[in-house]
Design a protein that fits this description.
This protein is mostly helical. The chain is 73% helix and 0% strand.
C-alpha cells in the first residue's frame, strides 16, 4: 500500500470524505480572506505568539500561506504532493519549536 493510502486508512479518510470536502469549497471560498484574520485573532492570545510573529511582513506571509492551505484543504486532492506540502509545514513548525 502506498504511503499516502496508509495515512488515509489510518484516519479512515475515504474518497467520500474527499468528495464532501470538495463539495464545501464554494462555501469556504467566501471565507478565504476572513479565515487567516480570525485565526490570528485566536492565536494572538497565546503566550509564545510574539516570539514567532515579530513583524507585519512575517504575519502577512504567514496569513497568505494559511489562505493557500485553507483552500487546498477543500480541493478534494489529497495525494503525494498534498502530503509533502503538509509535511513541509509541519517540519517548519517543529524547526521553530
Amino acid at each position: 500500500m502506498e504511503f499516502i493510502e496508509k495515512i488515509k486508512a489510518h484516519y479512515n479518510f475515504t474518497a467520500g470524505d474527499a468528495a464532501n470536502l470538495k463539495q464545501l469549497k464554494p462555501l469556504i471560498e467566501k471565507y478565504r480572506d476572513e479565515f487567516p484574520k480570525e485565526f490570528y485573532n485566536y492565536i494572538r492570545h497565546f503566550e509564545d505568539t510574539p516570539k514567532y510573529l515579530t513583524s507585519e511582513e512575517i504575519i502577512t506571509r504567514h496569513q497568505d500561506g494559511l489562505k493557500k492551505w485553507f483552500m487546498r484543504l477543500f480541493s478534494g486532492e489529497y495525494g503525494t504532493q498534498y502530503i509533502r506540502d503538509i509535511e513541509h509545514i509541519g517540519y517548519a513548525h517543529v524547526k521553530i519549536n
